[in-house]
């Protein structure tokens, strides 16, 4: 009975609803749909700047043809972006979910750690990030990480002596410190996802955990039976966000190619941007279609 | 069995706690490293910057990088001027954006009108499509802005379409922000919708019985109830407008007086390596760090102030009714 009461929401007249979303509809039609459609038109034309505005010369699929058959640079850039996509996106997802679960627990200093994890959101400007990449991506971080984990000099020798017999371990440590620089980049693109995951975790009702504890479930079981299933909506949301964010990042070689072509050669830039966006859109739709059936909702 | 559990459990939980702190401290270190490095570099004398023994702390702290670059007599980066432009855009856009996005989010979250899913899909579409796709046509749109077709209707009578150029002030930032298609507007609408949906119905019902109009329910009851979300969105909005170089680079006016911080920084970075000797290059680099530090400081302060709301927003997001 109680469920029914909760489902019976939202009844007032249609017009009030339309009135509230009216600003967006105006903005969407005139300042989004129209220019986007125009840019689609540009991409099928050879556009030059004439004396009285733009001059269009229809060339059909010419720009798209050039993109995939004539322009080696584009294909190269596309490959470099796609190559790393799957693993990077998955790692970002894993890191952000893991950190969100840690930061959602109650312990002393969690506010401080939360604040630190959100710092990347503040420094999201390209100009700032470039400098940080210079600073953080240099070997220095690797060295200091080594010393941070006491892997430098004597300590390392000592450790290697101990673990020498377990050969693989030292190479794992090597690899791990090597990944520190990678970790930096990944952490810096996980800020928003951590926030989304924490919000998702908060929506899981506390009584479920109480029941689980009373029934004697272990933490491991609780995670897989309660936390993970109820987090699936957030996982889907974050995955889509991460995909979009990864492919649209301005450090991405395709995006910077589009940016440089925008000046002067912008029919081609529009075509590139369209081809690229449609590909991302299809990817998002596929991901959404595959995973949304697996999403478990509270209702 | 019982005996085992008594010993193992506290041990495991202690180990877990240690592990958790070690991990969080390690990760914080990786995140903070460049920030600390930047702060220390900007206070380091330029000659010392790339020497062997340069560590985290400079041998003596100096303000000369800041003075030379921004605040001294020969300053070439007019920080205050740029910051003023950026702040004007960021603050006004934020106000407009919070207003329009909360309004639209409210409509989408609380009213189940017929077109709701379609409008929501449009919102998602604005999030997905990269801004670059539309930026050139938008430039022409703003250069000959016909006020959403009104100019064309006037044109029917006067014979010439009435247009205005809104690129010659910062209107090209304000207009989209007011109509829910500004920088990241889609994400904010999405957030507002999510929170409005999770609020209890009773609040509205009671107000309706008392004879409140929909608009005053929204203004007087809903908005005060989601203050943390409003603050969070405002904070994000200020930060993103402050950091934006793409839109600002295309839509702001030419000339040094109208540059925003990030656009000015971009320009400076492009000119940086040209025709200077090694020492000058080092000096420039140190000053660059100083400039970046000054440019992000306002946002860090803002974040520290707004952090409380931010956390509260997250902790409350779960309270469903």
Brief sketch in words of this structure:
Chain A is mainly alpha-helical and 299 residues long. Helices cover 77% and strands 4% of the residues of chain A.
Task: Estimate the strand proportion of chain A.
Answer: under 5%
Strand content of chain B: under 5%
Rough outline of chain B: flat
Largest sheet of chain B: none
Radius of gyration of chain B: 26 Å
Mean pLDDT of chain A: 75
Oligomer: heterodimer
Pair with the biggest interface = A-B, 93 and 91 residues
Q: Could you explain the architecture of this structure?
A:
Chain A has helices spanning 2-7, 14-43, 62-70, 72-104, 110-122, 126-136, 139-148, 153-163, 168-187, 191-202, 206-214, 219-248, 253-262, 266-292; strands spanning 45-50, 53-58. By secondary structure, chain A is mainly alpha-helical. Chain A has a two-stranded antiparallel sheet. Chain B is mainly alpha-helical. Chain B has a single domain (78-316), classed as Orthogonal Bundle (MetI-like fold), CATH 1.10.3720. Chain B is built from 14 helices and no strands. In chain B, helix 3 packs parallel to helix 7, helix 3 crosses helix 11 (227-243) and helix 13 runs antiparallel to helix 14. Chains A and B meet through helix 2, helix 5, helix 6, helix 7 and helix 9 of A and helix 1, helix 3, helix 4, helix 5 and helix 7 of B.
Topology:
The complex is a heterodimer of chains A (299) and B (321).
Chain A: H1 2-7, H2 14-43, E1 45-50, E2 53-58, H3 62-70, H4 72-104, H5 110-122, H6 126-136, H7 139-148, H8 153-163, H9 168-187, H10 191-202, H11 206-214, H12 219-248, H13 253-262, H14 266-292
Antiparallel strand pairs in A: 1-2
Helix pairs in contact in A: 2-14, 4-10, 4-12, 5-10, 7-9, 10-12, 12-14, 13-14
Chain B: H1 2-42, H2 64-71, H3 79-110, H4 116-128, H5 132-143, H6 150-158, H7 171-178, H8 185-197, H9 202-209, H10 214-225, H11 227-243, H12 246-251, H13 261-271, H14 278-316
Helix pairs in contact in B: 1-14, 2-14, 3-7, 3-8, 3-11, 4-8, 9-10, 11-14, 13-14
């Amino acid at each position: 009975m109680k469920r029914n009461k909760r489902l019976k929401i939202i009844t007032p007249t249609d017009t009030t609803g339309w009135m509230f979303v009216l600003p967006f509809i105006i903005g969407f039609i005139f300042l989004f749909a129209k220019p986007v459609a125009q840019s689609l038109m540009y991409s099928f034309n050879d556009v030059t700047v004439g004396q009285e505005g733009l001059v269009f010369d229809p060339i059909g699929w010419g720009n798209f043809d050039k993109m995939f058959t004539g322009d080696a640079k584009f294909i190269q850039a596309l490959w470099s972006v796609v190559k790393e996509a799957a693993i990077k996106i998955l790692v970002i997802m894993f890191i952000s979910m893991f950190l969100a679960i840690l930061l959602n627990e109650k312990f002393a200093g969690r506010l401080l750690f939360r604040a630190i994890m959100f710092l990347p959101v503040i420094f999201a400007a390209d100009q700032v990030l470039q400098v940080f990449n210079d600073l953080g991506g240099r070997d220095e971080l690797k060295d200091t990480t080594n010393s941070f984990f006491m892997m430098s000099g004597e300590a390392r020798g000592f450790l290697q002596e101990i673990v020498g017999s377990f050969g693989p371990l030292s190479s794992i440590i090597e690899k791990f410190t090597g990944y520190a620089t990678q970790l930096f980049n990944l952490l810096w693109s996980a800020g928003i996802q951590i926030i989304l995951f924490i919000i998702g975790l908060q929506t899981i009702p506390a009584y479920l955990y109480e029941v689980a504890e009373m029934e004697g479930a272990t933490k491991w079981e609780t995670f897989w039976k309660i936390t993970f299933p109820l987090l699936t909506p957030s996982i889907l949301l974050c995955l889509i966000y991460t995909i979009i964010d990864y492919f649209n990042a301005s450090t991405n070689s395709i995006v910077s190619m589009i940016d440089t072509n925008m000046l002067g050669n912008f029919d081609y830039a529009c075509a590139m941007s369209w081809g690229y966006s449609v590909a991302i859109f299809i990817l998002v739709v596929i991901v959404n279609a595959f995973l949304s059936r697996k999403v478990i909702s509270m209702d | 069995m019982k005996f085992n559990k008594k010993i193992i459990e506290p041990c495991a939980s202690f180990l877990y706690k240690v592990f958790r702190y070690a991990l969080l401290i390690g990760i914080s270190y990786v995140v903070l490293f460049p920030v600390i490095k930047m702060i220390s570099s900007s206070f380091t004398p330029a000659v010392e910057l790339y020497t062997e023994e340069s560590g985290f702390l400079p041998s003596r702290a100096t303000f000369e990088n800041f003075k030379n670059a921004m605040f001294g007599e020969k300053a070439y980066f007019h920080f205050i001027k740029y910051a003023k432009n950026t702040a004007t855009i960021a603050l006004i856009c934020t106000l407009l954006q919070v207003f329009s996005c909360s309004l639209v989010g409210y409509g989408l979250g609380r009213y189940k009108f017929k077109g709701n899913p379609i409008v929501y899909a449009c919102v998602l579409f604005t999030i997905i499509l990269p801004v670059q796709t539309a930026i050139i046509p938008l430039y022409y749109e703003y250069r000959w802005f016909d006020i959403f077709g009104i100019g064309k209707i006037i044109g029917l009578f006067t014979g010439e379409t009435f247009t205005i150029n809104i690129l010659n002030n910062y209107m090209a930032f304000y207009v989209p922000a007011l109509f829910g298609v500004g920088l990241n507007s889609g994400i904010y609408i999405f957030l507002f919708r999510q929170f409005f949906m999770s609020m209890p119905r009773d609040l509205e019902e009671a107000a309706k019985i008392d004879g409140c109009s929909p608009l005053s329910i929204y203004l007087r009851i809903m908005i005060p109830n989601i203050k943390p979300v409003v603050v969070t969105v405002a904070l994000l909005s200020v930060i993103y407008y402050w950091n934006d170089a793409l839109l600002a680079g295309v839509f702001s006016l030419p000339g040094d007086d109208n540059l925003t911080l990030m656009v000015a920084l971009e320009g400076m970075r492009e000119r940086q390596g040209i025709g200077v000797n090694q020492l000058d290059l080092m000096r420039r680099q140190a000053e660059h760090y100083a400039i970046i530090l000054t440019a992000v400081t306002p946002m860090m302060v803002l974040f520290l102030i707004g952090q409380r709301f931010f956390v509260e927003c997250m902790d409350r997001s779960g309270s469903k009714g």
